Sequence to fold (76 residues):
Amino acid sequence: MWLSAIPIKPKPVLSYDFEGDLQLINTLLGAPMPRGWKTENIAQKLDVARLAEYVGTHGGEHHALHDARANAYAFR
Fold:
């Protein structure tokens, strides 16, 4: 699996903002995350106003890459 090729030091973190996304990735992988990976739901760490600002400026809401960029912008 391609995730296994990512170095585990420093510990990689798969960040998500919707529990269904983690379930989906586990289903797609056919297994849990590789050993050494951490998962973190960051939904409560997002500044809602900054998230809306980003989407309003850049669009693309509900597209994985745009959502990831918006989350990075809104993360507190």
